[in-house]
Every structure is written in structure tokens, then in C-alpha cells.
Amino acid sequence: MRAALGGPHEEGGKHISGGEHLSSKADMQVKAVELIDKAFSHTQGEPTFFQMTIDKVEEHLQAIKPLSVSTIDATDAAQGRKLARSLLADHGISDEVIKKAMNLLESSNDNRGALIINAKTGERLDERKEKGVRVSHLYWEKENFEQWCKQKELVVNQRMKEALTLATKVCSHPLTIAELCWSDDPDYITGYVASAAKGYQRITKVKEYGDEAGGRLFFVNDDQSIDSYIHYLEKIPVSIG
Ligand code: PML
Fold first, then answer.
1. Which of 103, 115, 122, 138 is the most exposed place for a label (fewest CB within 10 A)?
2. Which burial class, exposed, middle or buried, applies to 111 when counting CB atoms under 10 A from its CB (0-12, 13-18, 19+)?
């Protein structure tokens, strides 16, 4: 589902809401209504453009465990960015690569999907331009998610649930070294660095309120072709839990 103000995003409209579900045929209608509700209850206003597609998924579903979660408090955005750089450096990524990659996030409020970055050189590996790579075919069933929150004694908002689900899928691929993300939503300032090695490390403040720049970077090993990596991110169905 995608929803925008003033027409489709590619025709100049402003993207305000997106989302997806992976469901059985029996649950399809309920899930479709949830997505309609999500788009039409957005704080930035009622969409004037709304699009929803339903695809049949044929591939075998993979089940994976959620990443562990930790939270680091930052007093301001500058300290938050510094923390993000040091968490990425813990994965062996050089200062130069981190700086180059973070510039991409700092300078863009039009990253619809993730950018794939060579962790050794900082060079961008996908050829999707501003569209990026949209991670898809992933879900975390409600009851299982609620049980997990209870067991971990965590209060998790919808946005964090979606981000953790996505990060878990991304980091379960052996090519991923780490993910860096902060939202392009000017009202959401928490970001994270995630990896299979260190888990989902939230940083409470990585930008100032009002800042519309943000997105996702996937730092990867360059020792294989990224075509099968992108296929995994976009097409292989994954359930968390
Ligand atoms: C986004 O929705 O664009 C990014 C969400 C980041 C979530 C960070 C968190 O709260 O854990």
C-alpha cells in the first residue's frame, strides 16, 4: 500500500504512508482493511493518492528469530550520530566509508527504498537511483509479537515493530554486515544500527525534529553478486518469531 498527498510520489506527490502484510487467503480482507485504516489515519493528513496491490506469493516461507534489542540514550542529534558512527565502526567499517554513506542519508528526503553500500569502499552497489531497494514479503504475526514483547518486557510502537521486522530480515542474509536507519519523518527522531552480530541497537535521538532527511543503508560484503541479495530482500517471504 502506498499513500500520498497531491498525486503519486513519482509525479511529485508527497509520500505519507506505506505498508504491507503477508497473509493467508482467509485473512486477506482483514489485512487489506488494516492498510486502508493506516493510510487514512496518518497525522500528515488524508491521502489524495492511494494505491494497494495484492500479489500471490509462491516461494517457500522462511522463519527467523527477531534480533535482540538494546537502546542507547543520546542527549542530542550530534551525539546520536557519533554513536551511530561508532556502532558501525564496531563492524569493521572505516571512518571514511561511514562518512561517505551517512552523507547520503543526511542529504536526502527522497529515499523511498534502501541504498546498498559496499562496506569496504563506500560505493553504492544497487542501481535503483532514488527509488532504492524496497524490502518486502515479511511479517510478524500479532500474537507471536505480543508474546515476544511480554517476554522481553518491551513496549514497542508500530513503527519500531516494522523496523525491527525489516532489520531482522535484512540482517539474516550473510551478505549484510550492518544496517543504518533513521526515518525521513520529521516527527520521528529515533534511529538504529542493526546487525546479526550485535542485534538491533536503537539510538534515541539521531536527528532534530523537523528534519525530513533519512532512509536506510545496508552495508554489505562485496564478495558475491548483489542480484540474489536484492531478490531475497524483495521477494523471499519471511516470518519473524
Ligand atoms: C522509519 O519508519 O522510517 C524508520 C523507523 C525507525 C524506527 C526506530 C525505532 O524506534 O526503533
1. 103
2. buried
- Amino acid occupying residue 195: S
Q: Phi and psi (nearest 5°) for 123?
A: -75, 145
Contact 48, 6 (CB under 8 A): yes
Q: State which of 188, 205, 212, 217 you would mutate to test the pocket of ligand 1, scoring each by most atoms of that ligand within 8 A of its C-beta.
A: 188
* Rounded-to-integer distance, Cα 48 and Cα 13, Å: 9
Smallest CA separation from ligand 1 atom 11, residue: 160
- Set of cell numbers at residue 174: 550473510
pLDDT digits (tens, 9 = 90+) for 118-171: 999 999 999 888 789 999 999 999 899 999 999 999 999 999 999 999 999 999
The domain spans of the chain are 2-51, 62-240
